[in-house]
Amino acid sequence: AARHSENTAVIGFDDGLWATATGIDPYRVTVVDPRTEQIAYVGVVREHGRPVLLAARLRVSAAGRVTEAETVVARDVLSLQRLQTPRPPMVSDLPVAQRVPRAQMIAGVNAYFDGIVHSDGSKIPLDPDCNRLENGLKTTNNPDLGREMARDRAKASGASAPTPLPKVVPAGDDAGAPPPAIPQDCRGQISSGVFHFISRISPRRGFVVDEQKGLVFGLFMFNHRGLHPIIHLKDGATMPDPFGGQPWSMQMAEFFKFRNGRIWQIEAVGTPLPYGAATGWEN
User: Fold this and answer.
1) pTM of the full predicted structure?
2) How many whole angstroms separate alpha carbon 234 and alpha carbon 38?
3) What pLDDT sits at residue 144?
4) Which residues have a Cβ under 8 Å from the Cβ of 105 and sit 6 or more positions away?
């Protein structure tokens, strides 16, 4: 029988966003993997007119029927300005000379998550121009990131989002000290220790690989034990755990665009869950 989940909950195909969607915006990225009979998608969908961010993994049988539909729906997206049209690299074929085998790309994705957990970007195959979007927010090479996050926090405080978000703690300390300077680039951020609040990224699964576009999609569970309310960065600076030292998990659907075997662009869609939440696909 066909199986469908939304934010790890296994539900019928006549429930969830499949039932409440009222439109589709132009923003969308697709990954096609004939070898595994899978397709992955991320895009902006309207739910009763309200924009939500959808990531989906579909498995299609030889008869053309959907047998698996696994979706991540972010209903609390506050940064939509970069989700009007997809970035050209995410929808363009990769020149043949810049392509690498699928196994190498999957290994690169795993190296990326290993680097985050161990605060070590040195072994990650990252392109010098690497950039990352998380629920529409540009979290690398963005000098306005702090202001954008503050703006989004202000929006969220007055909104009744269907998905409750862990409370974000300002980066400065109680005495009013300014937040530490965090590197702007992908590798520098990871190596700085700013992601030390992420305890484990597991399971890592649901890979969909489009060798023609140089894209890898996967589903990843970020687990935060909340043991260290104060984060010690590699340069000796400290900052609060941005989520207040509380246990929680986040299901992430992420797309990685490779170029010459290196991670060039990253797009992530995530939604918070109780700590230790199952994926809904253990069996």
Assistant:
1) 0.91
2) 40
3) 81
4) 209, 211, 214, 216, 256, 258, 261
